[in-house]
Each structure stands twice: as structure tokens, then as C-alpha cells.
Write a structure and sequence with these properties.
- There is one protein chain.
- The chain is of the alpha/beta class.
- It folds into two domains: about 1-90, Translation factors (Elongation Factor Tu (Ef-tu), domain 3, Beta Barrel), CATH 2.40.30.10; about 100-240, Nucleotide-binding domain of ferredoxin-NADP reductase (FNR) module (Rossmann fold).
- Helices cover about 20% and strands about 30% of the residues.
- It is built from seven helices and eleven strands.
- It has a six-stranded antiparallel beta sheet. Strands 9-8-7-10-11 form a five-stranded parallel beta sheet, sandwiched between helices.
- The longest helix has 12 residues, at about 215-225.
- The two termini are about 20 Å apart.
- The model has no long low-confidence stretch (mean pLDDT about 95).
């Protein structure tokens, strides 16, 4: 089912990376889930999944997207302005939600590119802060200009100074306080653990991974080398992932 969405705000983080706030009537959702945006073209529906950045109690939907020149939908999304319309799936989907994450003391949120989006939805809820002693947000990008939502990150640093740890990873340039590494390599060589002052441990760590499929697969493999296992309903573990492209 599809419903009409109205663009009420847009943020351009750089020339390709942007966020859209959309007013649309959809069913209640859980932080971490995604919706689909679509348009009809030559009688065919072109639809793509986008994680929701906003918390469930907000009165708008927000997505973080990047313009892919050869993409079927993203160039048109990038051209949307205030007052333009886009079709939105009436129900959100996905199991990368806190209710599916087993108990633990430390929550690691590993994200690359636009895969960071759903973590802000989670971090804007009270439940995550009440549940975990430490929350580590790892944000990997190619260039520093690709880091979105810095004001939100700064807010968490100030509000949850003893609980929240942020680690940027910028792979193609040197940037202050950032690691110049891909997430999987930084897990494998221990650089990430040393940088944040925590270790990946079976008995206290829960790890969520979201981003490009190669990063997810490689990061999961490196975590498995540290004895962590994928979280399944029939067999709870420490690694939760979401693949929607």
C-alpha cells in the first residue's frame, strides 16, 4: 500500500548527500525500521528502501539519502523541493530494532554512509539510554564532508557524556579525531577497541551493523573471529544486521 508524502524540509549535507523530511500518514513504526519511497514511471513503479532517521513519536518522516548518478530513483529524490510529492509505503519494515537485540551492557552501532540513519532514530528514544551502560556510535565515511547530523552527535556527547562514545572513521583523508580505516580492518587489528576504550566481548557486547553489504559481511566475519555470533531468534547472539539493498 502506498500513500502520498509531502516534502516539508530538506537538508543538503553536501552536493550529493541530503535528508528529506516528509509529511505522510503511515502506520506506527519502531526505531530502526525502514520505509520505501517510490514513483511511477512509464507505468512501472520504481521503489527503493530508506531507513527512517526520525524517532517514532515525531510527526514527520525523515530519510538520509545520497544521489547516485546512475540510480533509478535517487536523482529524482535529490531534485525534490519543499511542496513536492513522493509516494511512501504505508507500513515500515525491518527487524533491526532494539526489541530484537538481546541483553548486554555495551551497544555498538556500526554504520557506513547512509547506513547511519536508523541509529539516530534509536538514539532519539529514551529506551536505548535506559537499557545500555555504554553506547558506541561508529560512523564510517569516505570524506569528512560526508558526515551528516553532526549537531545530533554533539547533542548526545553533551547530554550523555559518561555513556555515549562517538568514533568517526574517514577512509580517504586524514581528519582530526577520526580513524583512517574501514570498519572491518579496525575491528580486526584492534584499533577500534583501543580508540573507544572498550572491547568486543561475548558476555557484554551487542553489535548492530548497517551500511553497504560488503562492509556488513566483512565486519561480521571479523566479529565472529572474536567469538561473537549472529543474533537469531532461535539462537540469540551478539551481532544484528539489516540488509535492504
Amino acid at each position: 500500500m502506498w500513500t502520498k508524502g509531502l516534502v516539508i524540509q530538506r537538508i543538503d549535507w553536501n552536493e550529493q548527500l541530503f535528508s528529506l523530511r516528509i509529511k505522510a500518514d503511515i502506520e506506527p513504526f519502531t526505531a530502526g525500521q525502514f520505509i520505501k519511497l517510490s514513483e511511477m514511471r512509464d507505468g512501472k513503479r520504481i521503489a527503493r528502501a530508506y531507513s527512517l532517521v526520525n524517532p517514532p513519536d515525531s510527526d514527520y518522516l525523515e530519510v538520509l539519502a545520497i544521489k547516485v548518478e546512475q540510480g533509478l530513483l535517487s536523482p529524482n529524490l535529490h531534485s525534490l523541493q519543499l511542496g513536492d510529492c513522493i509516494e511512501v509505503s504505508s507500513r515500515a519494515s525491518g527487524f533491526m530494532v532494539l526489541d530484537e537485540v538481546p541483553e548486554g551492557k555495551h551497544l555498538w552501532l556500526l554504520g557506513s554512509g547512509t547506513g547511519i540513519g536508523p541509529y539516530f532514530s534509536m538514539l532519539e528514544t529514551a529506551a536505548v539510554w535506559q537499557r545500555f551502560e555504554k553506547i558506541v556510535l561508529v560512523y564510517a565515511v569516505s570524506y569528512a564532508q560526508d558526515i551528516a547530523y553532526q549537531p545530533l552527535i554533539d547533542k548526545y556527547k553533551a547530554q550523555y557524556a559518561e555513556q555515549f562514545i562517538f568514533q568517526a572513521m574517514v577512509t580517504r583523508e586524514v581528519y582530526p579525531d577520526a580513524l583512517k580505516s574501514r570498519i572491518p580492518l579496525a575491528i580486526a587489528n584492534g584499533v577500534l577497541e583501543r580508540a573507544v576504550g572498550l572491547e568486543f566481548k561475548v558476555d557484554n557486547s551487542q553489535v548492530i551493523i548497517c551500511g553497504n553489504p560488503e562492509m556488513i559481511a566483512d565486519a561480521q566475519r571479523e566479529l565472529e573471529h572474536k567469538a561473537l555470533i549472529k543474533n537469531l531468534r532461535r539462537k540469540p547472539g551478539q551481532i544484528t544486521v539489516e540488509r535492504y539493498w
